[in-house]
């Protein structure tokens, strides 16, 4: 079965192509940028290009997108062109070519304003029942693309699974306060508690989704490391996250101190992956407990795949104010 991977020069696309090639599976990578994992260079907005690349394909993983870091540098129309029109082209050509399963990489950013509770409120428990409130063009267009995917399942019977992935990029945080207060490794280890997934686990979820799509039909799933927290922790997480972590992981303080690391003082949301684990049979391996094990042994808490893919950035230029500009 030939698989088509869009965005093959990006973090997730490259990771998928690496794993598929290593497994000897027939995979074709497409991207607007040439790379060692890109078989055809072109845009998903170009319908003729999409049609040519879709021939003989039986499964699609659509990871190509304009991301949040592009909000400050790209016009809204480009987000609509790539994230919405490009997705429509892929869906229509998938149906025309008899594709059997379609996996769309979405983002927890679609939840938008729903992720941040009002002052004094507990941290938000984010599962698939939370209603998205997109707060920028990235979230709006990703949610619109999700809705197109659902429409193509209902009207054209194309099996589609939407995976709302949390953070897996290795680049420094866009927040200057986080960058100034925490090393990148420290911040990203902290995020495994509530808002990060290792790219190896993200890949495994996508590969399982390819196999499960025909049986499920349509579904949306949050893809994030398994949180150690429970709903009863939410009020205290917002006030004093370190105390909650200390109860769950008594050894964390000493292990962090050995590296000069700190926990975040407050956590405002917790991503819940229970439905993805149940529906897909997904077993994410990289979580906060594993990160502590890595600190104990002196190893890197990231997966070998994350290290192999490395940092790519989102722009050709370098910005003085941070890894990328942030739209107000």
Describe the structure.
The protein has a single domain, classed as Rossmann fold. The protein has twelve helices and nine strands. The model has no long low-confidence stretch (mean pLDDT 94). The protein has a seven-stranded parallel beta sheet with strand order 3-2-1-4-5-7-8, with helices on both faces. The chain is of the alpha/beta class. The longest helix is centred in the N-terminal third of the chain and has 21 residues.
Beta strands, count: 9
**Major sheet details:** 7 strands, parallel
Number of helices, where a helix is a run of at least 4 consecutive DSSP H or I residues: 12
Q: How many domains comprise the coordinates?
A: 1
Radius of gyration: 19 Å
How do the helices and strands follow one another from N- to C-terminus? Answer: EHEEHEHEEHEHHHEHHEHHH
Structural class based on helices, strands and sheet pairing: alpha/beta
**Name of the CATH class:** Alpha Beta
Residue stretches low in confidence (pLDDT < 50, at least 5 long) are none
Write out the CATH superfamily name: NAD(P)-binding Rossmann-like Domain
- Kindly state the mean pLDDT as a whole number? 94
Helical residue percent? 40-55%
- The appropriate CATH architecture is 3-Layer(aba) Sandwich
Strand order of the largest sheet: 3-2-1-4-5-7-8
CATH overall fold name: Rossmann fold
β-strand percent reads: 5-15%
How many angstroms does the end-to-end distance come to?
A: 45 Å
Shape: globular
């Amino acid at each position: 079965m030939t698989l088509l991977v869009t965005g093959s020069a990006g973090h997730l696309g490259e990771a998928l192509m690496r794993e598929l090639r290593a497994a000897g599976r027939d995979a074709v990578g497409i991207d607007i940028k040439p790379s060692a994992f890109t078989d055809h260079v072109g845009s998903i907005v170009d319908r003729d290009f999409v049609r040519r690349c879709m021939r003989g394909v039986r499964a699609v993983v659509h990871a190509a997108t304009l991301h949040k870091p592009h909000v400050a540098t790209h016009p809204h129309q480009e987000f609509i062109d790539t994230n919405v029109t490009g997705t429509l082209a892929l869906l229509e050509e998938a149906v025309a070519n008899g594709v059997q399963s379609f996996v769309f990489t979405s983002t927890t950013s679609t939840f938008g304003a729903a992720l941040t509770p009002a002052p004094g409120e507990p941290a938000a428990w984010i599962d698939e029942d939370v209603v998205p409130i997109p707060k920028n063009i990235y979230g709006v267009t990703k949610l619109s693309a999700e809705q197109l995917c659902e429409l193509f399942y209902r009207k054209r019977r194309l099996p589609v699974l939407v995976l709302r992935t949390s953070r897996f990029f290795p680049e420094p945080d866009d927040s200057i306060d986080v960058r100034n207060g925490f090393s990148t490794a420290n911040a990203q280890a902290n995020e495994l508690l509530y808002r990060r997934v290792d790219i190896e686990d993200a890949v495994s979820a996508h590969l399982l989704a390819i196999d499960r799509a025909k049986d499920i039909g349509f579904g949306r799933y949050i893809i994030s490391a398994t949180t150690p927290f429970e709903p009863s922790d939410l009020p205290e997480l917002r006030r004093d996250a370190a105390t909650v972590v200390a109860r769950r992981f008594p050894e964390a303080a000493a292990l962090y101190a050995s590296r000069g690391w700190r926990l975040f003082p407050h956590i405002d949301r917790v991503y819940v992956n229970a439905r993805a684990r149940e529906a897909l049979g997904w077993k994410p391996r990289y979580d906060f407990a594993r990160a502590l094990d890595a600190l104990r042994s002196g190893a890197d808490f990231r997966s070998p795949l994350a290290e192999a893919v490395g940092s790519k950035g989102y722009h050709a230029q370098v910005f003085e104010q941070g890894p990328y500009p942030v739209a107000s």
